[in-house]
Write the structure tokens for this entry.
Amino acid sequence: MSIENAAIHIVKPSTSTHGRSEKDRSLGKSRFHFEPKTVMQHLRKHIIGQEKALDEISKMLHVVKADFSPPDKPLSVTLMLGPTGVGKTETVRLIAEAIYGQADAFCRIDMNTLAQEHYTAAITGAPPGYVGSKEGHSLFDETAIAGSHTRPGIVLFDELEKASTEVIRGLMNILETGKLTLTAGTKTIDFRNCMIFMTSNIGAQAAQQYLEKIQFLPKKIQDICLKRIPTQTIIEKVMYRKFDPEFLNRIDRTLHYQAVQSDALPRLVEIELEKLNQRLLHQKRTVHLTNAAKAYFYQDHDIRFGARHLARKIRTELEPVLAIYFLNHPENNDIRIDYHNAEFHVL
């Protein structure tokens, strides 16, 4: 049996292992050099409309920074629930960017590629007698997981609900002890200096169907329904049916990300424009949108597809216009775009 590594995306963090000085120890200083306040400022600038989830992440980062986590467990285990395109995976990217200076400086495992039971070997290693058992191969990279003495490792299990039950059970020992001994017994991988994140869309469809059913009721009745049966309750019922209690009991925090609301859309368009201008920085170009052009991107927005839908509209509708203009007018660096008569126009 061979193990494919298509599910993992790794950028290795620095492996500096400088110990704390005696002075730092005596003053009770943390060995971690990141500042939770700085990380949270970065998150709140880019993740819109998720205040409750971000408040919990702030608490988690402060506990990690304080450096008194149990020595036999990961630094933190966080499950992020919510519909697609609301910022779950982006949260992990932003944390990595704030701590390491690179948005992809974490070990990401796409659980949707581990849908079959036999893919458990991709997590726990091949059993004795199978191909790869002696080499001790698994999807994990020890350097990316270990981080360094001054910075925690970061691991993301993305789209958790799409993995097979056996694969998810294979994670339980990691969450419980902070270690994973491969099946062949040839290697033990240490997660105790690591922040573990998991994302899932579990229950999001059921919650959306519930909201669609009550949307035609009077506002007061809607509020009563949501008070008696919040969408969080519906999501949790689906989650409890999908995941074993033993697995859920090993998670420190379960965060609920909300669907993108209409009042957040203008700010999300601004964020996507900032990303575009960041990519154009090496060409010394800047793009500005009029209010009409910005409004085009968030009018009639379908909240089921979250912020990704905005990014996709910019990529498929605005960027081709910019590309043609840049190729025809390479001397122009400051571009202003308007939208009228169902078309984009360069002013």
About this structure: The chain is about 45% helix and 15% strand. The longest strand covers residues 194-200.
